[in-house]
TrEMBL record:
It is an enzyme of class 1 (oxidoreductase). Pfam families: Acyl-CoA_dh_1, Acyl-CoA_dh_M, Acyl-CoA_dh_N. PANTHER family: MEDIUM-CHAIN SPECIFIC ACYL-COA DEHYDROGENASE, MITOCHONDRIAL, MEDIUM-CHAIN SPECIFIC ACYL-COA DEHYDROGENASE, MITOCHONDRIAL-RELATED. Residues 240-388 form the Acyl-CoA dehydrogenase/oxidase C-terminal domain. Belongs to the acyl-CoA dehydrogenase family. Keywords: FAD, Flavoprotein, Oxidoreductase. SUPFAM superfamilies: Acyl-CoA dehydrogenase C-terminal domain-like, Acyl-CoA dehydrogenase NM domain-like. It comes from the Bacteria. The keyword Mitochondrion does not apply. This is Acyl-CoA dehydrogenase family protein. It comes from Streptomyces ardesiacus. InterPro entries: Acyl-CoA_dehydrogenase, Acyl-CoA_Oxase/DH_mid-dom, Acyl-CoA_Oxase/DH_mid-dom_sf, AcylCo_DH-like_C, AcylCo_DH/oxidase_C, AcylCoA_DH/ox_N, AcylCoA_DH/ox_N_sf, AcylCoA_DH/oxidase_NM_dom_sf.
Length: 389
């Protein structure tokens, strides 16, 4: 099919139908709801508001849609999931992260279901799938970001419990989560890490308001553990599997972040075209200026390249093949390319693009952030060369 900025999926009728219904939900329901309640990407969201989105999305079949049918999903493959994720951010909806369950929902726990015991699934994970509970993932520390092995949060075995001590930062969804997946270093070893399911109301566990990232979204929290006792039954997987669970999830996330970035850049394109058509300078619309046309051409070309890489890698993942190298390549290229597109959008909008509160300005800040989130561009380059050379 010829390339279009707004993709079509004529070769996949199921996906075409899902995308059509998702676009209708976003346009007819979610965006009007956000406008009526003054919700922006920088709003402080309460649990009631989020639960409303979870429940409505579940009614429409979108919440946890990529999970297997036995868990309430539709078994979407990665290619189809990427298509839906792009549509969400391309809509400009501030609550788009809660429609499929990215923020604290089913997509957060889907990758760890295979490590959970039957009891853990029933008590923790399945309620998340049903939209009854929310979770966060806690790996990062102040001095342990890209180099996760520098973490200082420890887990000490004491009878039928593990005792956690430490301080985690940038735990997305922590402000409204019920429990966390916490990766900690075993106290008796400098090189062994384990993962635990920790109820956030457990004595010795405190949730603090986290730093506000440059995107302005208030989704982060700090978790502080002071002699926090966690039952042995809450060990996720086997002792020593913590980094495999954590980093394995991050590898897939690096791919699945990409369509969201592409969608945001696509939104910046749409806003830029609309602005260039209506803004008059020197007696003609901006779109008549060759310099502006070239910027739009560069934006479209970057989006085409990024989407092509991501869909090719998603198809490889759907075949069950290893995508460790390609996931790093996708995240590296997509984060850089989409930021370039956002930068061009700011340039096209002029003073409006520099104004705090303008949608293009917020997209610019958000996409700049993703050149660091889930791995810096430099970390991706290191991983690519290490794997290939």
């Amino acid at each position: 099919m010829p390339y279009t900025l707004t993709p079509r999926y004529d070769d996949n009728p199921r996906l075409q139908e899902l995308v059509g219904r998702l676009r209708a939900y976003l346009t007819d329901e979610l965006l009007p709801y956000e406008r009526a309640h003054g919700i922006t990407p920088e709003s402080r969201l309460d649990r009631t508001t989020l639960e409303g989105v979870w429940k409505r999305s579940a009614e429409l079949g979108f919440y946890g849609i990529s999970l297997p049918p036995e868990l309430g999903g539709q078994g979407l493959n990665f290619t189809e999931l990427c298509a839906l994720k792009e549509e969400l951010t391309a809509s400009g909806a501030a609550l788009s992260h809660s429609v499929l369950g990215d923020m604290g929902g089913p997509l957060r726990v889907g990758a760890i279901l295979k490590y959970a015991t039957d009891e853990q699934r029933e008590r923790y994970l399945l309620p998340v799938v049903r939209g009854e509970r929310a979770c966060c993932f806690s790996l990062t520390e102040q001095d342990a970001g890209s180099d996760v092995r520098r973490m200082r949060t420890t887990a000490t075995r004491d009878g039928d419990s593990y005792v956690l001590n430490g301080h985690k930062v940038f735990s997305s969804a922590a402000p409204f989560a019920d429990f966390a997946v916490v990766v900690a270093r075993m106290a008796d070893s400098e090189e062994t890490y384990s993962a635990f399911l920790v109820d956030l109301d457990t004595p010795g566990c405190r949730v603090l308001e986290g730093a506000v990232p440059m995107s302005g979204q208030r989704m982060e929290g700090d978790l502080v553990f002071e002699d926090c006792r966690v039952p042995v039954a809450n060990l996720l997987g086997e002792a020593g599997q913590g980094l495999r669970i954590g980093i394995g999830r991050i590898t897939l996330n690096r791919l699945l972040h990409c369509p969201s970035l592409i969608g945001a850049a696509r939104r910046a394109w749409d806003l830029s075209v609309a602005h260039a058509k209506t803004r008059v300078a020197f007696g003609q619309p901006l779109l008549a200026l060759q310099a502006v046309q070239h910027k739009l051409a560069d934006m479209a070309t970057d989006l085409y390249a990024a989407r092509s890489m991501v869909l090719a890698t998603a198809a490889k993942a759907d075949r069950g093949e290893n995508i460790a190298v390609e996931a790093n390549m996708c995240k590296l290229f997509t984060a850089e390319a989409c930021f370039r597109a956002a930068d061009q959008a700011v340039q096209i909008h002029g003073k409006d693009g520099l104004t705090r509160g303008h949608e293009v300005e917020q997209i610019f800040r958000s996409l700049r952030m993703y050149r660091i989130v889930t791995g810096t561009s430099e970390i991706h380059k290191n991983a690519i060369v290490k794997a290939l050379v």
